[in-house]
Amino acid sequence: MKYNFWFVVGSQLLYGPEVLETVEARAKEMAEEMSKHLPYPLVYKVTAKSNQQIADIVKEANYDDSCAGIVTWCHTFSPSKMWINGFANLQKPYLHFATQYNREIPNEEIDMDFMNLNQAAHGDREHGFIAARLRMPRKVVCGYWQDEDVQQRIGSWMKAAIGVAVSKTMKVMRFGDNMREVAVTEGDKVEVQTKLGWQVNTWAVGDLVKEMNAVTDAEVDALMDEYKANYDFATDNVEAIRYQAREEIAMKKMMDKEGCKAFTNTFQDLYGMEQLPGLASQHLMAQGYGYGGEGDWKVSAMTSIMKAMGENGNGASLFMEDYTYHLEKGNEYSLGAHMLEVCPCCAAGRARIETHHLGIGMNEKDPARLVFEGKEGDAIVVSLIDMGGRLRLICQDIHCVKPIMDMPNLPVARVMWTAEPSLTVGAECWITAGGAHHTVLSYDVTAEQMKDWCTMMDIEFVHINKDTTVASLEHDLFLSDLAWKLK
Ligand SMILES: [Mn+2]
């Protein structure tokens, strides 16, 4: 889907045709110019002068799948009662851009005609009131439209809005159920579909095995060539790799047939399969598919959504799990990994394919997997949990480092990080908030984007950052719990 955003400029008939023509010409110019610097096109649509025009453009936006959101601005004054009927029906993300055409007040030129034409400073306030009054989820960005930092903020919001569009059409393919007895990976699928749009359904592992058996050697050969181009082979067990290729092809066929962008499986249900998909899942994730281990469909869908929000529609966002700590005083780290399935989009160098015994689960043979070190950089980890009656998204700022040891006998990909406000206080906060062991780790989606996404989705957002204390977090969670019960 090629997405765009609509630029809707508010005005009224009071000003006469000359002013309105100028507004229209400038709005077009601004949309075209800004589009050169934004990740998605901003398309000028209308200078709205009546209730009917606004209601019509909203209706059109709602029904246009390629429209991922609307950006409004009031060059002149636009009486806000005109916006009520349209806004009451708006189903797309909404950003209010408070800006003006001219950067500076022209000392000599300014007169009453100039004031008449350039009144965003109060036009945008009237416009802001009605959205506040209607309790609309929105983003307000104020600044000069040609400034890079302003365009960057709008661009960042656009990507979060893409996350909304992707979420609303998300389909998750589950192979097998959740890992037995695990709580945090559970959730209300009806609630999630209502709130986030996700269609989460199950397919039999037996059907996957049937699909695997139908994969041809030529198909496997082609994928093996792709593996060779992207990864080093650090095993002689070529058959194990070919088996993973077969799994990947079969899963991809099944997902593509159903329009699924994310999947789960569990080591407890591999009936008829020789290996837990490792390399297969990793290479699918590298192509933008979401994945969650142990049947965790929430983290799977979130991975796919955050990948879509990132750079080039498949950023460095990946399924992750806090595995074990390094608690040396003053030098504390979390080691993130998974049984097999870490996406190579975070690899610091070229990943290598290895085969090792995996004692857990139903593996008859040694599964092939990609092994690598994660790259350095600031990142976030995100966990979506079901609080019973509502969803909470927890986000924490972290800093990934080059792993401080090489861990030569660790047979899986690894990422190492410190966390805000510190590893241990951060863990206290995370546990207090109920965050899962599974997360989406992202190097390119920001906490602000996740907050914007939660605002648009109308779910709770909790941010653990350098300023968070356990006491302040407990207080916020207590108030938030009450607020969400009243909502
Ligand atoms: Mn896990």
Structure overview:
The protein is of the alpha/beta class and 487 residues long. It has two domains: 4-167, 3-Layer(aba) Sandwich (Rossmann fold); 171-486, no CATH class. Helix content is 39%, strand content 23%. The protein has 15 helices and 19 strands. A six-stranded antiparallel β-barrel has the order 11-12-17-16-15-18. Strands 2-1-3-4-5 form a five-stranded parallel beta sheet, with helices on both faces. Strand 6, helix 7 and strand 7 form a beta-alpha-beta unit. Helix 6 (148-168) packs antiparallel against helix 12 and helix 13 runs parallel beside helix 15. The longest helix has 21 residues, at 148-168. The mean pLDDT is 96. The chain binds manganese (II) ion (MN). The site of manganese (II) ion has 5 residues, from loops. Manganese (II) ion binds at residues 293-294, 321, 338, 438.
Helix content: 25-40%
**Rg to the nearest angstrom?**
25 Å
**Tally of helical segments:** 15
The amount of beta strand, in percent, is 15-25%
Stretches where pLDDT is under 50 for at least 5 consecutive residues are: none
- N-to-C CA distance: 34 Å
Largest sheet: 6 strands, antiparallel, barrel
| Overall body shape | elongated
Q: Report the structural category.
A: alpha/beta
Distinct ligands: manganese (II) ion
